Amino acid sequence: MLKYLNASITFLLIVLYSCNVFAQEKFEKESRIKRQSVPSKAVQFIDSLNFKNKVKWFLEEGLERKSIEAKFKNKKKRYSIEFDTLGNVEDIEIEIHWKELQTQIKDSICFHLNNNCLKYKIIKVQIQFSGNQSQLLSKLKTTGSTQNLTTKYEVIVKCNSKNSIDLFEYLFSDAGKPLSISKIIFKNSSHLEY
């Protein structure tokens, strides 16, 4: 009897966890903004990098929060640095190719995708670094050590399930363990806006 009870509780926890993970939705609207509209702390952070490439600034609006994003290319990589609305740096994302990931991380990510999707296609992979401002600045300037930084992987996936095809944003730890899954929702565009 105890054996069946433990199995039932375990099954129930797995189902509840899966439902909670998929219950999250993500909506982002990006609007291009001028440098003059960006908090001075964010501008100073970007200027201290002394990159020669042009920086594009965006206001990112989600379901629950707003942020400022600086996007640019450096050494043939696409960078995105996210700031809060006061200009404090939150994280750095660098777009990478799937083949650049270590095999064990790819295997772990694929294992989780195979459990959640009948069929899937990886659309985009980004490595994400977070930590204090001076460590992030050092990482950007020298592409050096990530020892004191938190490393995560953001993976955008087109997932075919039994009833639908949806886009999901998965966030994985540096070991490839899932941290969050968000279904990407799009603004309803069934009507024309002029």
Commentary on this structure:
It is a single chain. This protein has 194 residues and is α+β, with helices and mostly antiparallel strands. It has a single domain (21-184), classed as Nuclear Transport Factor 2, Chain: A (Roll). Helix content is 28%, strand content 39%. It contains 4 helices and 10 strands. It has helices at residues 2-23, 40-47, 103-116, 133-142, and strands at 25-26, 29-33, 56-61, 66-74, 77-83, 89-96, 119-130, 150-160, 165-173, 178-184. A 10-stranded mixed beta sheet has the order 1-10-9-8-7-6-5-4-3-2. Strand 9 (165-173) and strand 10 form a beta hairpin. The chain is globular and about 50 Å long. It starts with a helix and ends in a 10-residue tail after the last strand. Mean pLDDT is 83; it is low at 3-23 and 189-194.
